[in-house]
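Quick question: what would this complex look like in 3D?
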Amino acid sequence: MTSAELVQAALRQWPGEVTCRVDDATATTELRCAPARAADVCGQLAGPWSYAFAGLVVEEQDAAFQLRYVLYGEAPGWVHVLVEAPLAEASVPTITPVVHAADWHEREAEDHFGLAFEGHPRLGDFVLHDDAWEEGVQPMRRRFRRRITMADRRPNVDWRPRRIVEAPGAFVMPLGPVFAGPTEAVHLQLETVGEDVIRAFPRLFYKYRGIEKLAEGRTRDDALLLAERFAATTAFAHALAYSRAAEAIGGVEAPERAQVLRVFLAELERLRHHVGAIAGICESTGLAVAASQAGILEEDLLRVSGALAGHRYLFGLAVPGGLATDLSDEACGDALLRCQATLRELDRLWGMLRLSSGFVDRLEEVGFISERDAREHALVGPVARASGIARDLRAVQPYGAYRRLAFFPVREQEGDGYARMRVLFAEARQAVRLLEQALAALEPGPVTVAVPARSGAALGAVEAPRGAAFHWLRLDDDGKVRRYRIMPPSFANWHGFHLAVEDFAFQDLPIILATLDLSVAENDR
Amino acid sequence: MSNWVWRGLRSGVRTTGYPSAPEAAAGVSPGFPLGATMEPGPAAALVAACPTGALSERAGRVEVDPRRCVHCYRCARAAGGPLPWSNDYERAGVPDGGQGAPLGAAFGRSLHIVVVDAGDCGACLHEVKQLASPYYNLHRLGFFFTPTPRHADVLVVVGPVADQMRVALEKTYAAMPDPKRVVAVGTCALSGGVFGPSYFSGAGAAGVVPVDVEVPGQPPPPLAILHGLLVAVGRKAPARLAAPAEGAGAS
Amino acid sequence: MTATALIGVFATVCAAGIVLSLILPSRYAPKLVAWAGSLASLALMALGAGALLQAQPLTIPLWSVPAVGRILLTADPVAGVFLLVTGLVFLAGSTYAASGLGAVLAGYSGRVYAVLYLGLEAAVGWVLLAGDVFSFLVAWEIMSILSYLLVTFEHREEDRPRAAYVMLAASEAGALAAALGLLLLAVSAGSTAFADLRAAGAGLGAGLRLATFLLTFFGFGVKAGLVPVNVWLKDAYRAAPGPFVPILAGATLNLGLYGIFRVNADLAPATSVAPGLVAVGVGTVSALVGILYATTENDLKALLAHSSIENAGIVTAAMGAGFVFTAAGAPVPAAIAFVVALYHGVNHALYKTLLFIGADTVAGRAGTRDLDRLGGLIRRMPWTAAAMLAGVLSIAALPPFNGFVSEWLTLQTFLRSAELPSLGVKVAFALCGAGLALTAALAVTCFAKLFAMGFLGHARSPEAESATEGSGSALAPMALLAAACLALGVLPTYVIGALDHAVAPLARASAADALVPPFFAGAAGHAALPPAFVSDFHALGAQVGQQVLPGPGLVLLHRGGASNPVVFAAAPSYLVLVLLGLLGLAFLLTRLAPRRAVARRPAWDGGIRRLLPEMTYTATGFSNPVRVIFDAIFQPTTVEDTRATVNEHFRTAIRREVEAVHIVDRLVLIPGRRAAFGAARALARLHHGKLNAYMAYALLSLLALLAVSTLL
């Protein structure tokens, strides 16, 4: 529904309890309500009114915490539900009974701010592990001092994993954080009776670096470095989201040529990332030749990126106001030719994989996530699109030059590993088509514009290769970062990890993980 | 299934000639800024612009400490006087007062590597993974990834050592039998990059385990990592790393 | 001492023990059981050794019972083997009772236990020494009843009386069948003396022979624990008091095997292959079923009980092979098969007793029998662990222990079927041989699980963490049995020589010459060996020890016949020497090598901060793959599969429980019970209280009797 319709419906539904404000510049509708009403409002939005839950931003103001629940619909436009909780009480009711996707956001807020969510059954031991940190650290509070020494810490040395499975002979199989090869550090607790995984719990945040806290006090341009580097395999997408937030605060739009080049680089990154994910799936099933073939293609694309932009992962390109440096049309054309050649090889690989029954058997009907589960956990990206949720920010909330390009989200129904792989292949093909469209739409012009450093706050949202990424940025009067909140796609998708893994055998776990393509660095921040 | 064999054979040989021959393809390395002589004004502006204090000025010359360079390209694109850029990749060095000699001839062609991700952003780890791809194929050099530190000779650390990974990194190092070496890969593992030191994240691997070979870059390309491994076994000479920038800005 | 004197000593010690236990206070019972039981068992062992090595079997006539015949006691080499091993089992069990009985007697009368125990020992001895049908059956009954009383000793516990009743019912049914079989033989021989039965055995008709076989096989098979008549075994072993189970497994189980062997190999040897094939088939099925349930069982006692079924199956299969070879007219393979059967029976008694004593020690010290709650005991109970390791290696048939020799020989015996003419028999042997090989593999899994989950790793419960080492009276018998297992594994050539002494008269051929050829130049029969053969085995070390060792050489052979000239050789004696040599060499090298710092670090756990016991594999997890693969046999049903949630998505509990009914219960006990109840109900319809009907029944019976008597 449009903002006007939404305001009317909200005033009708909760008369006298909700105040609305519409910001046409960012197409955002703000609904303010009391903490006790938040669950109702969010539940109604996420449920019958079919808005998708993007995330929760908590900011500490002078007298109260401000909680901002961010949602978006099927048509362009955002809804922010704002709730205030006085600092002294630091407690609000949880919205997880109606919006389960807020579960991990609330746990993170509790660890970061000490904000108690009444009714949430699982607070604690989330970002800061109980056996490494003592209680009450609350690093995101303004009063938090950054230089308490390690020796003063009092962690809980009797920490034990929480067990749910009550079956004779059940035990907790620990995997990680150091794995058998070059794999990201995460600790998986798999409760099992021997063959099948009955319950899987990922213990994340071993790689927590406190990005959101580090950003506070840095200049806008220095914090951009953090945005680019916290999850560098999709560096351009995150830097783009940050830049768009900064541009929205400054009230400017990047020039036309910059927007088209941004699309070009984003799709190049997406193509490279998806080919890497496909290589990972082939490797997990042990199909060595296919893994090598995909590995060749991935390295080709990394070299294309490096030759085009100077850096293989596209560092240092997206800046607020456009691009840091121009790319020549010829260089882009060369890159496109090589991408098209890579796509032909990729299609050939797909043709062979499709007919390898041993390979397909390991993916079909394995790692199943139902559409209902995906919706209730607000999964994003290729994972969600493989479970029937055709939501892609490039179509639903188009940004930049995507508004002018022809684009239709890929969608599959089955929700298993094979469906997710088909989505990856289809989006890779689509990325090359978008590269062609972008190159055709490239016009000469400037690639950067100055962005005034004012105070303000805005949300930058892009469809990163792994899914929708949301960056919330608030700048002070002197242009320094006051609050930087990142809600990455892997955070949403790790929440749904157990849905895919449970009730399958141990041998399927690496394959399911490969098809889900989750990034720990992106989640942990 | 025979299709796959045919497909593999038809792909031909893609492996790089390195280390026997230099690799000249485009896009294999992001390169590094090089030091340059410069007027004091632009030099001071450049030094101030570097977000991690990798640049320092000494006697009319701007020096670069690659262990702190995060590839933000500000110095390469500075209006007043950009620094020249090189595209080489053999940058692995041995820190001063570095640990033992290279591992020696016995390990030269039979080296087992265990990798610990201590909070890395994903790019360095991704480049390490590319070592097993056909383009780089570390197996031809006799290097292998091993699943357990008990069989490992070299520990590759990526990431600034996030606080909650300290214990895991220490335990991995302790679980390795002698002789062992540590190769710290990436700017974060050498100096903390843009993340550390902080309450949640360290200033590199040197604070937790003794580091023998340092491979700078963010991320260092696979060729640079190969160079680092070859330095660790003494098959290649180390590059000279610049001394830490004097009075370097805090990060 | 002569045999008579030894029998007298044995009887006196048992009687004196019984009298003393009635006089003395209850608290002396454990010591009394230990001393009296041990002395009596020493007498039994001496008796057995003497009987085995004597050339002539000894017969002692006792009193004459009217209308039945003379009561005889005979001690022939076959009985000697069983006497020897039973004596050793009772020695170990009695010594263990000194400390192990304490927990049992807490609520029950020690006097009663002592009386029953010593009475059982006397009865077992009598069964083995009985020389005529009457005294055999009387002794058998006394033994059955005393076993039942001992199994139900802790009668106030739940489920124990019921398990013991099932045991009693099965025992009585088996005894009835066995009695019928023996009586059939006695009737056709016209006398009750075993010697007369043996003489008449050659002239039996085919139908009578088959009937006798089936009756005695399944009758004695009850005690031996063969499928499908072993419905009582698992529950009875679980219910029996801990110190008594070693006797159950080591002594009374062997009596069943003794009964089968005595009747079908000695008194009435087979003339057709059918009985042998039945035995082979039943043995293989028992072995498979037993080991499958053992592998998936977590209770120590129940695991070992199922494993007893498995071993009894193997012995029966070997005996069956012997019956087939006898019927097919191949006396040498038959002799080999019988030697192997006896060897495995002896081995099983030794290591099973060892394992049960160990299990009861663990249960007493670590407070639990559940493998899912044990762990890490090797640090807390090192000697028990060492003895259990010997037992585990033996039962898993790993060299240099005795299980390896008897399993190897069993499988070799099955390969000899190549010499038989009939294709059907060859196929049957091939299938059963494969089944036994599968059993051996599963046995390794099962006992690796027992040792690993019970003794290695982390303690999984506070009781296991605070376990203490067993006392001397527990460790001594375990050490003795472990040494015996090692000895029987390292010197198989001598054991085979001794067993051959018992088997040769029955099979009318010598197995020793086939299995342990006289390589030593001075031995009898050496000249008959082809010189090429001798020189080939010279290289294997067949002549080593010629000047030093008495008796046959140290190489164990399994030679095929003329139609099948292959040779399989094994030399466990040399194996152990090489093993010790290599260990010594390794030790020496570590001492001589340049000093190197040794780092001790905890096990690699993936870098987690603390490895907790709940993060280690449980016994259930270890054996889950077997459970899944053999799902068709276990047929588990899901009792519960629920999850409790808060707000639909926060899981607070996931509950899974399955239960499975034992396959023998499913196929035999439950249908049998249903049939019996059905028949009873049908018959009950006749009892409707009408007087007229009852008078009609009386009239009908009278008419039927008249008709029958007229016809006869």
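Answer marked as accepted. The first strand of chain A starts at residue 19 and ends at 23.
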